[in-house]
Amino acid sequence: MKNYMLHGDAPYEIVVVHGGPGAFGGMRATAVELSKTKGVIEAIQTVDSVDAQIEELAQVIREQADGKVHAVGHSWGAWLVLLLAERYPELVKKLYLVCSGPFIAKYAESITPTRLSRLTDEERVTVAELKQQLKSESGHNKDDLLLEYAYLSCKGDNYNAITESYPAEGFSSEIHVKVWEEAAEIRRDGSLMKSLEKVTCPIVIIHGDWDPHPWEGVYFPISDLGLDYEFYLLDNCGHEPWREVDALEEYFAILINSVED
User: Fold this and answer.
1) CA nearest 80: which of 7, 19, 3?
2) What is the C-alpha separation between 235 and 210, in angstroms, rounded?
């Protein structure tokens, strides 16, 4: 699989990074919209460790961009662009953390209960069954199972999503499992916060007020460190602002205005 797509015309000044880990296509609507303003690189994760994904993203930027980029990351992708900015500050002009996962473990405890509380009893049973199938060693197609799980989870993540759009085009279960194990550990052991402390570029935080990933777990760690940031909390918005009927216009306006600065 190719690890990037290009949208719009050179020079490519923006890189958009999917969540997941191991999802692809979810942020394509954001990439396409931003490409009306500047050339956009849509980065695709094809490797199965945190370190390798940082290096892969850095290589794509070096090869396709001309100078520093606006790095727009969603969910896990927000962590990935943060880790990139810490390791290679010369590559990143500004960070955009879109519905990032919380940086401190205690803030993550409410995510699953909140998500499940928004599903029907039948949907909760299906989620439990999918989790069991994903853990099993049987011949299930794990990529398809994970995509089905993501679609169902998004019912609990989003407030009023556009039904014609989807959270992702596909999933690599192998990448997801391996990378998320590492990612969860760097949050637990405090390494993620240590990386955040070293970020020197401006940060734009965009979060939905309906997102099960609590905005407090992103905002307070950044504000407490005294970093250079802007914070936008979108009303009636869940985990994917570009899909939200009530929030997508504001979401795109924030991004477009910021990358034009």
Assistant:
1) 19
2) 8
- Give the Cα separation of 83 and 103 in Å (integer): 12
Q: How far apart are the first and last CA of the chain?
A: 34
Q: What is the DSSP string of 21-72?
A: TTEESTTHHHHHHHTTTSEEEEE---SSSHHHHHHHHHHHHHHHEEEEEEEE
- Give 82-132 pLDDT, tens digit per residue: 999 999 999 999 999 999 999 999 999 999 899 888 888 888 888 777 777
Please list the residues that pair with 7 across neighbouring strands. 40
What distance in Å separates the CA atoms of residue 176 and residue 47, rounded to the nearest whole number?
A: 10
Burial of 207 (0-12, 13-18, 19+ CB in 10 A): buried
Angle between helices 50-64 and 173-188 in degrees, nearest 10: 110
DSSP output for 62-98: HHHEEEEEEEEEETHHHHHHHHHHHH-GGGEEEEEEE
d(CA 49, CA 21): 10
Tokens of 27: 């942020």
| Confidence (pTM) | 0.92
The candidate with the shortest Cα–Cα distance to 25, out of 250, 204, 214, 240, is 240
**Coil vs helix vs strand at 207:** strand
Type of residue numbered 257: N
